[in-house]
Protein backbone atom coordinates (compact mmCIF):
# COMPACT_ATOMS: atom_id res chain seq x y z
CA UNK A 1 0.00 0.00 0.00
CA UNK A 2 2.86 2.39 0.85
CA UNK A 3 4.46 1.66 -2.51
CA UNK A 4 1.20 2.47 -4.28
CA UNK A 5 0.83 5.79 -2.47
CA UNK A 6 4.46 6.72 -3.14
CA UNK A 7 4.07 5.78 -6.83
CA UNK A 8 0.91 7.86 -7.13
CA UNK A 9 2.61 10.81 -5.42
CA UNK A 10 5.61 10.50 -7.75
CA UNK A 11 3.40 10.40 -10.86
CA UNK A 12 1.42 13.40 -9.65
CA UNK A 13 4.66 15.33 -9.06
CA UNK A 14 6.00 14.37 -12.49
CA UNK A 15 2.73 15.45 -14.09
CA UNK A 16 2.89 18.84 -12.39
CA UNK A 17 6.44 19.45 -13.47
CA UNK A 18 5.55 18.55 -17.05
CA UNK A 19 2.69 21.04 -17.06
CA UNK A 20 4.93 23.75 -15.66
CA UNK A 21 7.64 23.01 -18.22
CA UNK A 22 5.20 23.45 -21.07
CA UNK A 23 4.23 26.89 -19.76
CA UNK A 24 7.74 28.23 -20.41
CA UNK A 25 7.75 30.61 -23.36
CA UNK A 26 10.74 31.18 -25.62
CA UNK A 27 12.30 34.62 -25.20
CA UNK A 28 11.98 37.08 -28.07
CA UNK A 29 15.31 37.75 -29.75
CA UNK A 30 15.68 40.78 -31.97
CA UNK A 31 18.32 40.52 -34.66
CA UNK A 32 19.50 43.71 -36.25
CA UNK A 33 20.72 43.25 -39.77
CA UNK A 34 24.03 44.80 -40.60
CA UNK A 35 23.73 47.07 -43.62
CA UNK A 36 27.47 47.32 -44.15
CA UNK A 37 28.65 46.53 -47.67
CA UNK A 38 32.08 45.19 -48.56
CA UNK A 39 33.20 45.45 -52.20
CA UNK A 40 36.49 43.90 -53.37
CA UNK A 41 39.03 46.39 -54.77
CA UNK A 42 42.16 45.56 -56.75
CA UNK A 43 45.29 46.55 -54.85
CA UNK A 44 46.53 48.65 -57.76
CA UNK A 45 43.23 50.59 -57.74
CA UNK A 46 43.59 51.79 -54.14
CA UNK A 47 43.80 55.58 -53.75
CA UNK A 48 47.31 57.04 -53.64
CA UNK A 49 46.84 58.13 -50.01
CA UNK A 50 46.07 54.52 -48.99
CA UNK A 51 49.07 53.21 -50.96
CA UNK A 52 51.31 55.79 -49.26
CA UNK A 53 50.12 54.61 -45.83
CA UNK A 54 50.83 50.98 -46.75
CA UNK A 55 54.37 51.95 -47.88
CA UNK A 56 55.11 53.87 -44.67
CA UNK A 57 57.76 52.59 -42.24
CA UNK A 58 55.12 51.16 -39.91
CA UNK A 59 53.55 48.87 -42.55
CA UNK A 60 56.25 48.44 -45.22
CA UNK A 61 57.20 44.95 -43.94
CA UNK A 62 53.62 43.73 -44.49
CA UNK A 63 52.42 42.53 -47.88
CA UNK A 64 48.85 43.48 -48.83
CA UNK A 65 46.92 40.44 -50.05
CA UNK A 66 43.39 41.80 -50.55
CA UNK A 67 41.46 45.04 -50.22
CA UNK A 68 37.80 45.97 -49.84
CA UNK A 69 35.86 49.21 -49.90
CA UNK A 70 33.56 49.09 -46.87
CA UNK A 71 30.49 51.31 -46.66
CA UNK A 72 28.72 51.47 -43.28
CA UNK A 73 25.02 52.12 -42.67
CA UNK A 74 25.82 55.76 -41.87
CA UNK A 75 27.45 56.09 -45.33
CA UNK A 76 30.99 56.36 -43.96
CA UNK A 77 33.57 54.58 -46.12
CA UNK A 78 37.01 53.11 -45.55
CA UNK A 79 39.29 50.51 -47.06
CA UNK A 80 39.85 47.21 -45.30
CA UNK A 81 43.25 45.88 -46.35
CA UNK A 82 44.36 42.37 -45.44
CA UNK A 83 48.08 42.15 -44.73
CA UNK A 84 50.51 39.24 -44.37
CA UNK A 85 53.96 39.00 -42.79
CA UNK A 86 55.92 35.83 -42.09
CA UNK A 87 52.84 33.62 -41.81
CA UNK A 88 50.90 36.17 -39.74
CA UNK A 89 47.83 37.93 -41.07
CA UNK A 90 46.20 41.18 -40.05
CA UNK A 91 43.52 43.58 -41.25
CA UNK A 92 43.91 47.33 -41.42
CA UNK A 93 41.15 49.92 -41.76
CA UNK A 94 42.32 52.93 -43.74
CA UNK A 95 40.21 55.98 -44.63
CA UNK A 96 40.19 57.34 -48.17
CA UNK A 97 42.54 60.06 -46.95
CA UNK A 98 45.14 57.47 -45.91
CA UNK A 99 44.55 57.82 -42.16
CA UNK A 100 44.35 54.53 -40.26
CA UNK A 101 40.93 54.06 -38.62
CA UNK A 102 41.01 52.42 -35.21
Attribute tags:
102 residues, alpha+beta, Nuclear Transport Factor 2, Chain: A, 2 helices, globular, Beta-lactamase-inhibitor-like, PepSY-like, signal
Number of strands: 4
What structural category arises from helix and sheet content? alpha+beta
In whole angstroms, the N-to-C terminal distance is 75 Å
CATH class of the domain at 37-94: Alpha Beta
Strand fraction equals 25-35%
Report the order of strands and helices: HEHEEE
Look at the structure and give the mean pLDDT. 79
The portion of residues assigned to helices is 25-40%
Largest sheet strand order: 1-2-3-4
Please tell me how large the radius of gyration is. 29 Å
Number of helices: 2
CATH level-two architecture of the domain at 37-94 = Roll
The largest sheet, given as strand count, sense and whether it forms a barrel, is: 4 strands, antiparallel
Query: Which word captures the global form?
Result: globular
Kindly report the CATH topology of the domain at 37-94.
Answer: Nuclear Transport Factor 2, Chain: A
**Uncertain parts:** none
Protein name: Beta-lactamase-inhibitor-like, PepSY-like
Keywords: Signal
Signal peptide: 1-21
Structural account:
The structure is a single chain. With 102 residues, the chain is α+β, with helices and mostly antiparallel strands. The chain has a domain at 37-94: Nuclear Transport Factor 2, Chain: A. The chain is 27% helix and 29% strand. It has 2 helices and 4 strands. A hairpin with a 5-residue loop joins β2 (63-71) and β3. It is globular and about 45 Å long.
